[in-house]
Design brief:
nine-stranded mixed sheet; alpha+beta; 311 residues; 5 helices; eight-stranded mixed sheet; globular; 2,3-Dihydroxybiphenyl 1,2-Dioxygenase, domain 1
């Protein structure tokens, strides 16, 4: 592992992430295509177990947040390390959290966070960084942080219409993580003006598909009882996504949640969350096909948690 030089930042953190998550790997490797060898009809996504939600907390809250999240969902965390993860000088304490319902990359910056980092919601592993970057503009998205090298690969940040920011990453050595028990959903709130542009852009980039486009979903799900809203659900190799199309008149905490986690027993999960220091910001609401609640963990991270009844 290379040492961090004062002359330019490195990404020692990536090696640490790889080492931690490798402990959970399958016996057989997952193939990741080498740079610049993909056919035009090949997806650039790898799988939802390779995609992490980015969580930013204050250094004083790092330990309590990680403990609370693992107590709620089970799983394991890497040992915290201090390093620079960006293409410019900075310093953060970092932990990777692996759970059956999703993966987190947790950052506790000790320096001011350079723009635009801290605004990206997720990190997506891609099969080929060159191909991923070439796919951005044709999809109607933009590259807001051009590719930069780290210790084990390359990274970039892109933005879709409507403002959704996502980090892309690629490894020299293909990583190999186990599948998740349930696939988390990226919860995206967009305006009516940008909804169709966003969906078209994301579908083009991810090569996903729409599984639901409900123009009259029960808005009690987003804190607006006796009203309706447009709810679009998308699935791709990057994972699940729920697009909430609204007028922007959202009561707190709706719109602040980044990721939705599916569990088998919502009541039991919420009890674990409360016992570990989390707060229930929005109590369980039962919609036609799921029951949902909003939780805030120590350090401020807000998440949706839901269960789906057995059919």
């Amino acid at each position: 592992m290379p040492k961090k030089k004062k002359s330019r930042p490195t990404s020692i953190i990536c090696t640490a992430i790889f080492a931690v998550l490798f402990l959970f790997a399958f016996a057989a490797p997952t193939a990741v295509t080498p740079q610049s060898t993909l056919a035009n009809n090949t997806t650039i996504a790898v799988g939802p177990q390779y995609d992490s939600t980015h969580v930013y907390v204050a250094p004083a809250d790092l330990e309590s947040f990680v403990k609370s999240f693992i107590a709620t969902f089970s799983g394991q965390a890497s040992k915290p390390i201090v390093t620079n993860v960006l293409p410019v000088p900075s310093s953060t304490e970092f932990q990777s959290v692996s759970t059956p319902v999703g993966t987190l990359s947790v950052f506790a910056f000790q320096t001011p966070i350079p723009f635009p980092f801290g605004q990206e919601r997720t990190g997506y592993l891609v099969t080929d960084m060159d191909a991923a970057i070439k796919a951005v503009h044709p999809a109607g998205a933009e590259i807001i942080v051009e590719p930069f090298k780290d210790a084990i690969g390359r990274d970039a940040v892109i933005q879709f219409p409507g403002g959704l920011k996502t980090q892309l990453y690629w490894h020299f050595i293909p990583p190999n993580y186990p599948p998740l028990e349930t696939i988390p959903e990226n919860r995206v709130y967009v305006s009516r003006d940008q909804a169709d542009k966003f969906v078209k852009s994301f579908l083009t980039f991810s090569r996903g598909k729409i599984t639901e486009d409900n123009p009259r979903a029960d808005a009690a799900e987003i804190g607006r009882p006796k009203e309706t809203f447009r709810r679009i659900r998308i699935t791709s190799l990057f994972g699940n996504m729920q697009v909430n199309v609204t007028d922007g008149h959202l009561p707190f905490p709706f719109g602040h949640e980044i990721t939705g986690y599916q569990v088998s027993d919502l009541s039991a999960t919420l009890e674990k969350a409360k016992s570990s220091g989390a707060k229930i910001l929005s109590p369980p609401f039962t919609a036609t096909d799921h029951t949902t609640a909003i939780v805030q963990f120590p350090g401020g991270y807000i998440a949706e948690i839901h269960s789906i009844p057995e059919r």
